[in-house]
Amino acid sequence: xxxxxxxxxxxxxxxxxxxxxxxxxxxxxxxxxxxxxxxxxxxxxxxxxxxxxxxxxxxxxxxxxxxxxxxxxxxxxxxxxxxxxxxxxxxxxxxxxxxxxxxxxxxxxxxxxxxxxxxxxxxxxxxxxxxxxxxxxxxxxxxxxxxxxxxxxxxxxxxxxxxxxxxxxxxxxxxxxxxxxxxxxxxxxxxxxxxxxxxxxxxxxxxxxxxxxxxxxxxxxxxxxxxxxxxxxxxxxxxxxxxxxxxxxxxxxxxxxxxxxxxxxxxxxxxxxxxxxxxxxxxxxxxxxxxxxxxxxxxxxxxxxxxxxxxxxxxxxxxxxxxxxxxxxxxxxxxxxxxxxxxxxxxxxxxxxxxxxxxxxxxxxxxxxxxxxxxxxxxxxxxxxxxxxxxxxxxxxxxxxxxxxxxxxxxxxxxxxxxxxxxxxxxxxxxxxxxxxxxxxxxxxxxxxxxxxxxxxxxxxxxxxxxxxxxxxxx
Length: 475
Prior knowledge:
Blueprint: E1 3-14, H1 53-65, E2 69-70, E3 73-74, E4 77-80, E5 90-93, E6 100-101, E7 104-107, E8 114-125, E9 129-132, E10 137-140, E11 147-153, H2 160-176, E12 189-199, E13 209-214, H3 217-236, E14 244-249, E15 254-260, E16 270-271, E17 278-279, H4 282-290, H5 296-307, H6 311-318, H7 321-334, H8 337-355, H9 366-377, H10 383-396, H11 400-407, H12 415-428, H13 430-437, H14 443-454, H15 461-473
Parallel strand pairs: 13-14
Antiparallel strand pairs: 1-11, 1-12, 2-6, 3-17, 4-5, 4-16, 6-8, 7-8, 8-11, 9-10, 12-13, 14-15
Helix pairs in contact: 2-3, 5-6, 7-8, 7-9, 9-10, 12-14, 12-15, 13-14, 14-15
């Protein structure tokens, strides 16, 4: 009988707020250490916390996006522990009365989707960042007090691949809802993983271990794969799994013991006395529900139905909300959804990938791309020249017509000019010309390419093909 893993995730998401959870300090990334702090987030005696309403709204919005049950009454608790990154020696979190309960997120290909259940979503303050040097350590409290949402799944995931897919789909939902910046390099999403293995699919779950502070999806995948292998090897050799917290050593590709796993009672939770309970009216929840965006999965389906796009195109375009918005804005101006999809998926996304940029920071506008695509479709500029124009627009913005004029890229349909380029192409490449005359039709495409090269992409390709055929067929 084969082994089956049971995987649960605890995903910590930094919310998209301008200020911290219980004070007015900014949450911007990259400030010098300990410059975005105050008595509240430093835990100084007498400092009193005040709730950030936007953090509550974003957490409830996340719960609505994921089908959770929203609590009309919830509260904050003190989670007590002693560690240098928490100056109060407790963390303000939520325990038995979280904001959101239940919910699910579907993963898997169309026709074989599987629902991964959520246990809860709660809100808390982040801790400080520990910095380790050669012989010393330091603490940067800029991050302490940042609103942090924790999304806890049931142990429904079975493989590292499923965990990776869940995190990727969750990231898309959070980006669509503008819940978080979701920048892994800045620590906007971090993940703890609970994993156990058992024989077969049925029966009680095995003893779990926890893997802490995994900050990349690739790291989650690799750590899970290694830990599952380790647990199976221990059990098959007659050993037993100890419930503990382990760290991931990425360089060695193994998990290592960190400490004995804490239980909930170890934290001695009790209600936060300095904060009133959170009370939400049904009317307020419905106001926030009305603000929900269309989710990526629904948008993929709509793109196929509304624009007659292949499922692959729809999946690529909707993977990022900014790209999907840009695509739809362009289509609204010029129509031609498949042409817009082709240009965005090839030229625009390639440019973004090369620069490590996002579409929101491009100088190219939907109106400019629509104008360029129309010019290409109507034959006023060739597709090859259009790519040259787009490269300029991606770098500097502006009007396609201005770039076409400035670069002299308007498509040439003048018979005399095309005849001259065709004659040059045949003269310079007698081999392909002879192959075409011998019946190799594909050689014509090479010669058309040479005409386009000679004309710097300006020749009308249909007229160039006709002129080449005429000359080659005449011998």
